[in-house]
Amino acid sequence: MSTAYVLINCDLGSEEFVISELKSIEGVIEVHGTFGAYDILAKVQAELVEKLRETITWKIRKITKIRSTLTLMGIEGQG
């Protein structure tokens, strides 16, 4: 199982909309609003790294009102 954490910045006031959209995407297993440099944190899992990449690139990053993302890939066998 591959895991990634996606840090998201979105348009001001659109956090609830983006969180709702993220929760409807298969593979997104946790979503949290945050304070600080980023607005939202999403945890994404998939069996294959390629599927994880597709989810982030073609589903998450295409959500309207998202301005930018930063993806942190989990290391297998750690934790």
Automatic annotation (TrEMBL):
Segments forming domain Transcription regulator AsnC/Lrp ligand binding: 6-73
GO MF, one annotated term: DNA binding
Keywords noted in UniProt: DNA-binding
Domain of life (superkingdom): Archaea
SUPFAM superfamilies, per database record: Dimeric alpha+beta barrel
Pfam families in alphabetical order: AsnC_trans_reg
Keyword DNA-binding set for record: yes
Keyword ATP-binding: no
Name the record gives this protein: DNA-binding transcriptional regulator AsnC
